[in-house]
Automatic annotation (TrEMBL):
The modification 4-aspartylphosphate is found at residue 57. PANTHER family: ALGINATE BIOSYNTHESIS TRANSCRIPTIONAL REGULATORY PROTEIN ALGB, TRANSCRIPTIONAL REGULATORY PROTEIN. Keywords: ATP-binding, DNA-binding, Nucleotide-binding, Phosphoprotein, Transcription, Transcription regulation. SUPFAM superfamilies: CheY-like, Homeodomain-like, P-loop containing nucleoside triphosphate hydrolases. It holds the Pfam family Response_reg. It comes from Pontibacter chinhatensis. InterPro entries: AAA+_ATPase, AAA_lid_NorR, CheY-like_superfamily, Homeodomain-like_sf, HTH_Fis, P-loop_NTPase, Sig_transdc_resp-reg_receiver, Sigma_54_int. This is DNA-binding transcriptional response regulator, NtrC family, contains REC, AAA-type ATPase, and a Fis-type DNA-binding domains. Residues 149-378 form the Sigma-54 factor interaction domain. PROSITE patterns: RESPONSE_REGULATORY, SIGMA54_INTERACT_2, SIGMA54_INTERACT_3, SIGMA54_INTERACT_4. GO terms for biological process: phosphorelay signal transduction system; regulation of DNA-templated transcription. GO terms for molecular function: ATP binding; sequence-specific DNA binding.
Length: 457
């Protein structure tokens, strides 16, 4: 995702630490970064200079921190320059308001605390979209804008062929694959090669939604629908209207969520909380999961009729260990990105290093390879990456295995008791850290919480 240092960025936030952090991060990616603490100076700045991208905080220090300050200034910016590309910076609690801002004209939003890679990806996407507007060449079906799926293996070639065939259709797509195989990348490629490419692509992490948040997040709500509902807010379905809605980790949602989602997909309309009036929605649905969804359906843990709705077409992504020849290609690609990012010479790979990388099982798939290369670039001493520059943790070094670890136990114990004891021991080992325990168990945090509740741990 490396780009030349072109473009100018304005960052508006009243926190000095945020301004400093973003300036340090962005100055290696663009030609100019201007920071401003006081939003009252915004219009004056914009009258003197045109910026390619504006990062705008949603909450400034005032009597009420509701995110409305960000919406107000977004409108002011767009009144001044209707083609301005604005990326909002929001806290997790204001995500729903940030979704509303997309309909107000914002390009995208990022959530504090942000992940640097995700923020830079959003920036580069915005710069490329801006470049497309300037050239008068909007993305057309079949044209890749920022998504690039790298690989030359036969397994990946089959996936790319499927994407080309499926993207221009309106078919709902279910993407299956292990963690780190690139499910969201495929979803974005399907969107960008579709006839909806110029419309919104809205992504939802279903695994992070509780039952209480599910309806308000996806369907929206009306003012007064519940305590703190001070204004109407559209849900993700409405935000994606005309475009693509990507439901990630769909295999983790509860039976009650499944029933509500099925109703919306059947009727193609949502009813916001606090309203009796359904709102029609026109979306192309793409879903993804790393859960064994058909096994869940066989155990009546996932509705079969919902599977039929979400998988008109199915794409199963191969794990990296089955993509013969792609490890070296991807390693060199990531090495170039992270060398430039860290102001280092792009390194070579010693033959023994390539052999080590090719022999590794990559249980974390492409994401694990990406992190391994970044770590090696940072720590390496010379211009050639050696085998010792890649030291895998015990978890990474282990071959791919069933998600739930097995321990020696009485074979007469019920399977549920074995699972309960395994979870208890892993949590104890990680001193109660749920995130670390979930990672070791090969579960999402949400899935682990469900098991904790199930087994009363």
């Amino acid at each position: 995702m490396a780009t030349g240092k072109t473009g100018s960025v304005l960052v508006v936030d009243d926190e000095s630490d945020v301004l400093f952090a973003l300036k340090m991060l962005l100055k290696t990616e663009v030609k100019e970064v201007v920071t401003e603490k006081n939003p009252d100076n915004l219009l004056s700045l914009l009258s003197k200079q045109k910026f390619d991208v504006i990062f705008l905080d949603m909450n400034f220090k005032s009597a009420l921190n509701t995110g409305n300050e960000g919406i107000f200034w977004l409108r002011q910016i767009l009144e001044k320059d209707k083609d301005a590309t604005v990326i909002l910076i929001t806290a997790y609690g204001d995500v729903e308001l940030a979704v509303k801002s997309l309909k107000q004209g914002a390009y995208d939003f990022i959530v504090k605390p942000w992940h640097n890679d995700k923020l830079l990806e959003t920036l580069h996407n915005a710069l490329q979209a801006k470049s497309g507007k300037k050239s008068g060449k909007p993305a057309a079906p079949g044209a890749v804008t920022h998504t690039s799926i790298l690989g030359q293996s036969e397994a990946l070639h089959d996936i790319l062929h499927k994407i080309e065939k499926i993207a221009p259709t309106e078919a709902n797509v279910l993407i299956l694959g292990e963690n780190g195989t690139g499910k969201e990348l495929v979803a974005r490629a399907l969107h960008e090669k579709s006839f909806r490419a110029t419309k919104p692509f809205v992504s939802v992490d279903m695994g992070s939604l509780t039952d209480s948040l599910f309806e308000s997040e996806l369907f929206g709500y009306k003012k007064g629908a519940f305590t703190d509902a001070r204004e109407d807010r559209p849900g993700r379905f409405e935000a994606a209207n005309g475009g693509t809605l990507f439901l990630d980790e769909i295999g983790n949602i509860s039976p009650s969520m499944q029933a509500k989602l099925l109703t919306v997909l059947q009727n193609r309309q949502v009813t916001p909380l606090g309203s009796n009036t359904p709102v029609p929605v026109d979306i192309r649905l793409i879903s993804a999961t790393n859960e064994p969804i058909y096994e869940l359906a066989a155990k009546n843990l996932f509705r079969k009729d919902l599977i039929y709705r979400i998988n008109t077409v199915e794409i199963t992504l191969p794990p990296l260990r089955q993509r013969h020849g792609d490890v070296e290609l991807l390693a060199r690609h990531f090495a170039e990105i992270y060398a430039r990012k860290n102001h280092k010479q792009v390194p070579e790979f010693a033959p023994a290093t390539l052999q080590k990388l090719n022999q590794h099982s990559w249980p974390g798939n492409v994401r694990e390879l990406q992190h391994a290369v970044e770590r090696a670039i940072i720590l390496a001493e010379g211009p050639v990456l050696q085998p010792q520059d890649f030291n895998f943790s015990p978890m990474e070094a282990a071959p791919a295995a069933p998600a739930m670890p097995i321990f020696a136990a009485d074979t007469s114990m019920p399977l549920s008791e074995i699972e309960r004891e395994t979870i208890r021991r892993v949590i104890e080992k990680n001193k109660g850290n749920i995130s670390k325990a979930a990672k070791e168990l090969g579960l999402t945090r949400t899935a682990l919480y469900r098991r904790l509740n199930k087994y009363d741990i």
